[in-house]
Amino acid sequence: MRLVDLTHRFSIHTPGWVGYPSPQLRYFQRHATNGIVSQLLDTPLHAGTHFDAQMHIVSGGSDVASVGLQTLCREGVVADISGEMQDWSVIKPKHIMDRVDVRPGDILIYHTGYHKYYNGRPEEDEERYFLRHPGGDRELAEWIVEMRLAWTGMDCASGDHPMNTSIRQKRPDAAAEYEKVTGESIQKRWPQDDLFVMHRIPFRQGITHVENVGGDIEAVLNRRCLIGAFPIPIEGGEASPCRVVAFIQD
Questions:
Q1: Which pTM does this prediction carry?
Q2: Residue 165 CB neighbour total at 10 angstroms
């Protein structure tokens, strides 16, 4: 069995989501002073490859510690949809189903190709990664629920289209560029009632997701395999950094 890491490296250069603080890693004990090294990590839970819990979106929803291992680790597929993705593309169920056989209860990870713009990658472009990545809409969110998936993962900053998040208020310049390039009105294409629809619809049914999947994802494209996500089981935690691994039986 071969293990493939689908996790981005974590460092002080790892960005939090748009508007979130960056991680801070610092020493509070040193070899010369204490004979031992100890460090303190201060980070938003939504930094790097991380698992969202239901309570991130749903008031009274379950925390990270409540997610069972049977949900976190099971059979699934990694769909390569990158050939049809570009800045601000809208991901539809057809993009995924045309490439892999998705079965009820699966873990589904989809590869848009945008992990190559993540911090530390050879084609790093933080603004493109966070502000212009592809994302799903209501059709994809409802299909995920219909398929009763265990969880989903994506190699971009969010399951939601960036213009269907608060980024449109935080970065009005990006919103203006979107409308200029696409010729679409954000308010018409992404109505306020549907804001964060890829979070709100699946999460209410207990189907959450992992954002910023990366690592060696290109080694497992369009494959069915055992997939595991391993967040810290934080009681009361609404998300957690995690390791995502594909277990390949060659």
A1: 0.96
A2: 23
